[in-house]
Amino acid sequence: MYKILGKRQLAPQIYLMDIYAPRVAKSAKPGQFVIVKIDEKGERIPLTICDYDVEKETVTIVFQTLGKSTIEMADYQVGDYFSDFAGPLGEASEFIHEELPVLKQQRMVFVAGGVGTAPVYPQVKWLQQQGVQVDVIIGARNQEMVILENEMKALGATVYVTTDDGSYSRKGLVTDVLKELIDSGKAYDHVIAIGPMIMMKFVAKLTKEYGLKTTVSLNPIMVDGTGMCGACRITVGGQIKFACVDGPEFDGHLIDFDEAMRRQAMYKTEEGQSLLAVEK
Ligand code: NAD
Ligand code: FES
């Protein structure tokens, strides 16, 4: 059983929880994810790790209440337990394997969209702690949906915020900011984009025009998280891959985003039906 040690609402429908999970905390790396089951009968919910603390033996997760299971999850309070917390799963971010002097030469920019800002946080934290200075572009629908801006700044990263409606900072999409930064002379070597699939598709389209290396983190529908069920199948460079074991990070220029988005939409009806059942 995995005890909830902390809970905080970051934005409407977005929650952060610190979970006591010593084994996961000890081996977690930036870029990896966990699969949470709230109780024995619960659905398996894949969530990217937002932070981990080896000393406190905790793992931080951030989730949005989008369906039946995440709405139930948000009802859990400090002191409650989740029945299962499997992980860390997936491959860690590629950059952690690079030599530090090489990494320090690289100019990296993270593009974080909405809830996708949460999985960007541990990557930025890891890099800043190694002395690698990075830029972060955070995009959100409006001011109240901007998350982890101050936490990202506290790490020392240079943060640009944009909102779709212009209610905070500047108005526009993350791709507008990225284009402006590149055109203004920021000579980035590596773009890492995490957020809604449509955002990652358009970031990859833009960076392809500039010939910029681009990594994206996919979160397709997952069931077992072990490469057995095929639910998270995606096509990368014409080859079939499974996001749970081969990813979740991939070369953004090789992903068949349209197929990935079609597969994500396939389950909408079932999710909708579960949601209606819980709301009755
Ligand atoms: P959102 O729809 O509010 O979008 C966030 C930002 O993405 C926007 O503010 C905008 O700047 C940018 N964006 C959106 N559409 C764009 C487009 N067409 N072109 C350029 N930029 C665009 O995001 P949300 O509702 O918080 O996101 C939820 C989604 O994020 C869910 O689908 C969830 O699955 C996904 N998510 C992904 C990960 C991951 O690991 N990849 C993690 C958490 C959440
Ligand atoms: Fe089953 Fe990836 S979740 S193969």
TrEMBL record:
NCBIfam families: PRK06222.1
Protein name according to UniProt: Dihydroorotate dehydrogenase B (NAD(+)), electron transfer subunit
SUPFAM superfamilies, per database record: Ferredoxin reductase-like, C-terminal NADP-linked domain, Riboflavin synthase domain-like
InterPro entries noted in UniProt: Cyt_c3_hydrogenase_gsu, Dihydroorotate_DH_Fe-S-bd, FAD-bd_FR_type, FNR_nucleotide-bd, OxRdtase_FAD/NAD-bd, PyrK_electron_transfer, Riboflavin_synthase-like_b-brl
Lineage: Bacteria, Bacillati, Bacillota, Negativicutes, Selenomonadales
Location of the FAD-binding FR-type domain: 1-95
Annotated PROSITE patterns: FAD_FR
Superkingdom as given in the UniProt entry: Bacteria
